[in-house]
Design brief:
This protein is α+β, with helices and mostly antiparallel strands. Helix content is about 20%, strand content about 30%. The protein has one domain.
Length: about 220
């Protein structure tokens, strides 16, 4: 696989890091900002290399969102809520939709993001647990009930995981606070890269970052 394809996927991650830096600047200047996708965690260990692509479609109720297939615009129209937001320029640009899931056992926030290279297609999903005091915002509204629950087709989401899912994702029996995996393959004539980064506490997923990208 060409090295440049991996670099292109990592532009998704770096866009989140760049936005976090711009958010700090805006806060220092006392400028209102929309809730941004959190920057991707940086694990100390090299990612687990997988032999098969682990990324599955995201299910929002009965709505099926395919990474690197479904678009932000079509997903927004299907849900009927959410505000398309954009940050950055050129290859550092990032577009996203943000939703709050307030009826979960722990409130959650979900971002569907599209890097500049994806041209409007959703190529990453970020989700985090929220503090109990957190509430929906104008830029991150409550996800309509009919589009819940939210989870990947294999069951991956915030909270606990089954033994079978842990094995399929390559998660060791005693993982550290951050787990990451990487898959590299081919989809026809395209180079394919999938990455999953989970933040864990006592075996429970507190944040997840999943990306899936195909490039020439």
């Amino acid at each position: 696989m060409p090295i440049r394809s991996i670099r292109r996927l990592f532009a998704v991650f770096l866009a989140g890091v760049a936005f976090a830096a711009s958010l700090d600047f805006a806060r220092a200047a006392d400028v209102p900002v929309a809730p941004p996708p959190p920057a991707w965690p940086v694990p100390k260990e090299a990612p687990v290399t997988l032999a098969a692509d682990p990324v599955r479609p995201l299910l929002m109720g009965t709505l099926r969102v395919t990474l690197d297939g479904s678009t932000l615009a079509a997903t927004r129209d299907a849900i009927g809520a959410g505000i398309s937001q954009r940050q950055g320029k050129g290859t550092d640009a990032l577009d996203w939709l943000c939703y709050t899931v307030s009826d979960a056992s722990a409130a959650q926030r979900l971002w569907l993001t599209s890097s500049e290279l994806a041209r409007g297609r959703i190529d990453a999903v970020v989700a985090v647990d929220l503090p109990t005091s957190a509430a929906p915002t104008a830029q991150c509204p409550d996800l309509p009930q009919k589009f819940r629950p939210v989870r990947f087709d294999d069951g991956l989401w915030l909270g606990g995981m089954s033994v079978e899912l842990r094995k399929s994702l390559g998660i060791p029996a005693k993982p550290g606070p951050i787990f990451s995996s990487l898959y590299q393959g081919q989809a026809g004539n395209l180079a394919l890269v999938s990455s999953t980064v989970l933040e864990l506490r006592a075996g429970r997923v507190e944040s997840l970052h999943v990306a899936h990208s195909t490039q020439n």
